[in-house]
Amino acid sequence: MSVNDITRRLGESLILREDPPMRVFVTGASGWIGSATVDDLLDAGHDVTGLAGSDTSAARLEAKGVTVLRGDLDDLDSIRKGADAAEGVIHLANKHDWANPAASAAAERSAVETIGEALSGSDRAFVFASGVAGLVQGRPATEDDASPHIGPDSMRGGAENRAFDFVDHGVKAVAARFAPTVHGTGDHGFISYIVAAARKTGVSGYVGDGTNRWAAVHVRDAARLVRLGLERAPAGARLHAVAEIGVDTKAIAEAIGTGLDLPVVSIDPDHAISHFGFIGRFFGMEGATSSDKTRALLGWEPTGPTLLEDIKAGAYFEV
């Protein structure tokens, strides 16, 4: 039997397998990816407790049938309480404070350490959000690439490597590495900032020659991957939530320009930040990423629309 046959049969067996319901604690449960993940977990029969920092978030979760635990990313006691009571934890919360990235990194590291300590010795699953940005240069990133971000002063507080420290302490830690854009109607992430820059400047821009690529995934596909990672991924797995290995940033700008009826222009890399704002640091980066090993491991196949299809359908143009 060939390796391809073994891989295909593994994927098929995973797809057909019935997984028992779990008590799952989710941070960031009312966020963009978190909301979709909670919906997917509930559809799969899991019992979900969600961390909620506001009355609005709590009400939204309760309406879905989620048990609410009040607290936020700085409330480590609540995070520990949620992890203690769960059979599996999904950590998606992040401050995303681009004006103070050090504060975001510190909070992320503290939350990961708190959850890891709570789950130590239990062999319970701990799926945490990470990213593919900056993994490698010169080729598409793969699941074999370890995160280069180490230590509390690095990107995201080095949380991916810190979380994997707990594998040796009986925690089934799994990294869910998201594409730079997790798209769909209602997305307020990176593409929305690029659209906002186009509205503000009157042109739809791309950096340099626009041949650098951004990996992408639809939010529903990303949510399903998180749930499959919780149910089935082994400790130490790096999962790539990537449906498209890379979309040319010039093609992204052209789709936005068509949608807003604006001219499409190249922006000098030296002026990227002044034109786009903070997102200019990233829009000119090469971000092509493979998810081949994730698909083979979990039998995951994205089914949602592509990034350009979402842009052309108007997902980012309602004010």
TrEMBL record:
Recorded GO MF terms: aldehyde dehydrogenase (NAD+) activity
GO terms for cellular component: cytoplasm
Pfam families listed in its UniProt record: Epimerase
Endpoints of the signal sequence: none
UniProt-listed InterPro entries: Epimerase_deHydtase (IPR001509), NAD(P)-bd_dom_sf (IPR036291), NAD(P)-dependent_oxidoreduct (IPR051783)
Domain of life, per lineage: Bacteria
Residues covered by the NAD-dependent epimerase/dehydratase domain: 24-233
Protein's name according to its UniProt entry: Oxidoreductase
Originating species: Flexivirga endophytica
